Amino acid sequence: MLIEESFKDVPTKAAGEGTMRIATITACPIQSMRLTNISQASSYSTQAYLNTHTPVFPPSLFSVRFTKVMIHVGLLPVPRTAQLTSTTLTGPVQRFARQIAGHGYIVAAPSSYHEFTGPQPLAYDGPGTDEGNRYKVQKKVSAYDEDAELAVSTLLSLATCNGRVGATGMCLGGHLAYRCALDKRVSAAVCYFATDLHGHSLGEGMKDNSLERAADIKGELVMIFGKKDNHVPPEGRDLIRKTLHDKGVTFSFYEVAWAQHAFIRDELSKGRYDPFVAKICFEMLLELFERTLKVDLGHNAGGEQEVEDIC
């Protein structure tokens, strides 16, 4: 499959009239195009994106339907340039999105801080981190939720959508993926080292209701943390796990023995990247998304499963 990237600007209202850019990354199955070579296939599909900003395939592919994944990416906005000639996705986010798209998903990455800054990403350095942390607590929780609602609606509006949507994210993005799962249209979410969840400190006023609303989650969660993560300490992880249990959420919970915060971010500025563990966690994501988004097993029957007490 070839990877194609585009964007869509959508109007926002929760924090005043504005615009949010949603980057989209998708895989185009070139073997079904019946074109003469890869260069021709790439040229055709790129032109389709330039003209429409939505996936457009040759007639032989009109029956192709993809599942959708929304990525929340922590402190970093993730737009595209209008010319589509060079990316303004940060490297780690772009590679993560492309990996997911390559498995047959259309990926949407909404820009988290469109109320405060332009389409360029914040830098992976001290000033960039400080700027992102400042925006994080200035933005209204209702505005974060509106971003998620608009991104999900955008994905579901695509002719190629099969009607099932998942979410994932890292750091702040892990928390936002969790809040995205509060939307009953979201079937699954993978939350990497979700920050501020245990402390109820997301957004303006630093008093969110994310854990209190856990019972609103109807899809399945995978929660992933490093045991050496000092952003989400042991007591915070225990609170998250207990709350999900008490609220009846369907979830898996993984704590990696030696991993620190942001251990899947594949750049070395903070010395935390663990490629082997990151690969294992990505397989967890694929397992959940394949089972809940791609395979049509019908609706969950609900109720408690009776487990037979045998060895």
Explain what you see:
Helix content is 31%, strand content 21%. It is globular and about 60 Å long. With 311 residues, the chain is of the alpha/beta class. The model is unreliable at 32-64 and 73-88 (pLDDT under 50). α4 crosses α5. 41% of the residues are buried. It has an eight-stranded mixed sheet with strand order 1-2-4-3-5-6-7-8, with helices on both faces. The protein has helices spanning 38-52, 91-101, 126-138, 141-156, 172-180, 234-246, 275-294; strands at residues 2-12, 18-28, 66-72, 105-110, 161-170, 186-192, 220-226, 250-256.
| Shape estimate | globular
| Terminal residue distance | 44 Å
Return Rg in Å.
Answer: 19 Å
Class by SSE composition: alpha/beta
Helix content: 25-40%
SSE string, helices as H and strands as E: EEHEHEHHEHEEHEH
* Main sheet summary: 8 strands, mixed
Q: Major sheet: order of its strands?
A: 1-2-4-3-5-6-7-8
User: How much strand content do the residues show?
Assistant: 15-25%
